[in-house]
Amino acid sequence: MFSSIYRSAYNEALKMFDNGVCKVDILSFLASAAETAAGYDAVVSILLLDEEGLLRNGASPKLPQDYLQAIDGLKPHPNVGTCAAAAATGKVVITPSFYADNKWAELRHLPTSLGFVGAWSMPIITGGNKVLGTFGTYYRDHKQPSAEEMEGVQLLASAAAMVISKSMAAEHSI
User: Fold this and answer.
1) What is the pTM of this model?
2) Which residues does the UniProt record annotate as the domain GAF (predicted)?
3) Which CATH number among 3.30.450.40, 3.40.50.11540, 3.40.50.300, 3.30.230.10 corresponds to the domain 4-172?
């Protein structure tokens, strides 16, 4: 069973959406909730797939702008990083150490320059199994997410999927 932080954040995100709060603010709220629940100085980044299938920043409240610019427009690929791999495969990707994982060969300088040593990423998926983006967590220690953290982030990713899907539907109906 996961922490009440996750359940509370899930419920609050849905209320925020019903009250007309913009998608970016809701995604930022979800990212912050995941950071709080994970502890360990974890930093969360939500990346969204655009119409061209490239990863764009959705909400990354604690990552610097130059980092976000450097990863902007990544193409999903099973052998690149954690978020690009999760977006390509639709599966959780865990990287306890950037130096021990060849998927980070071209990009490892980016997170390590910020003091991160590993990350993991949960795909954000619709009920119809369409990947909308990723929910990535960076760590400053060599660690893997606990079962509780994975289950909790899956719940938050499902809230993000609802918000993103409903926002997209609203944008297309205009």
Assistant:
1) 0.93
2) 25-174
3) 3.30.450.40
